[in-house]
Amino acid sequence: MSIFLTKESKILVQGMTGSEGMKHTHRMLASGTDIVAGVNPRKAGKVVDFYDRSVPVFGTVREAMDATGADVTVVFVPPAFAKAAVIEAADARIGLAVVITEGIPVHDAVAFQAYAAERGTRVIGPNCPGLISPGQSNAGIIPADIATKPGRIGLVSKSGTLTYQLMYELRETGFSSAVGIGGDPVIGTTHIDCLAAFEQDPDTELIVLIGEIGGDAEERAAAFIADHITKPVVGYIAGFTAPEGKTMGHAGAIVSGSSGTAQAKKEALEAAGVRVGGTPTETSRLVLAHLAHLAAVAAAH
């Protein structure tokens, strides 16, 4: 199984005809994603030819959904137009909106997140790599060739780069789903949302949680793990060496005083029973050791 995205997902791309949209639509198609439409009001009626598929372009999300049955949108529009793009998708009642765009103003993100939630549209992002269910579908910019194998690990991460690294290091084991939730101050789907979904997914045996400095999302996730998660969780926190008061890569990765530090997050997770690696490679080793232990316990019974 997988969370949020399956082989049945039909995906449209807002901004498909732009340079980033074209590049990543090609990559998504190459990984087996069922992309059924693009949306660009200025190019409605055109058809874009990719390596093995012709994808029609529609003027609106609603038109694309009505014509193709699309239930997921991937948003590649510039920051100034991202709010309008997500609101349009939410108005069409699409189930999932994956917002790749970075640099979206915080007040725009606050507005479209609230609007989408009221209309039942799950938002992943913004400023995120998207999500992948290996062997089924890939919505966003995660390189499919680093983790083409389905497996037993569920991954949720603030960091795109660390998503890729953990997936590469654990490529022989494989993933049920990997979700890059983004590192902006205001995001839609959270660590907690993914933890809850992985807990219910029968094919996910172990969860990897990647966090970073700034905010209190990891502390809240730790409290949720302690109260609601029965599956083993392995964690990694980026930013132990980050200087105080500096934004590190993500708009939300800023530490003020003792709030949001890597050490505080590590301690909160460990108090909830999460084993936290000191490096990505050590984290991968903890995952493999945990899975070996689970296999040994299962064999003994």
Explained architecture:
With 301 residues, the chain is of the alpha/beta class. Helix content is 36%, strand content 22%. The protein contains nine helices and 14 strands. Strands 3-4-2-1-5-6-7 form a seven-stranded mixed sheet, sandwiched between helices. A seven-stranded mixed sheet has the order 9-8-11-10-12-13-14, with helices on both faces. The protein is globular, with a radius of gyration of 19 Å. It starts with 10 loop residues before the first strand and ends with a helix.
Brief account:
The mean pLDDT is 92. This protein has 9 helices and 14 strands.
Widest sheet, order of strands: 3-4-2-1-5-6-7
Structural class: alpha/beta
Radius of gyration: 19 Å
Q: How would a crystallographer describe the biggest sheet? A: 7 strands, mixed
Number of strands: 14
Shape: globular
Q: What is the first-to-last residue Cα distance?
A: 24 Å
- Average of pLDDT: 92
Which bin fits the share of residues in helices?
A: 25-40%
Helix tally equals 9
- What letter string, H or E per element, gives the SSE order? EHEEEHEHEHEEEEHEHEHEHEH
Which band does the percent of strand residues land in?
Answer: 15-25%
Q: Catalogue the unreliable spans.
A: none
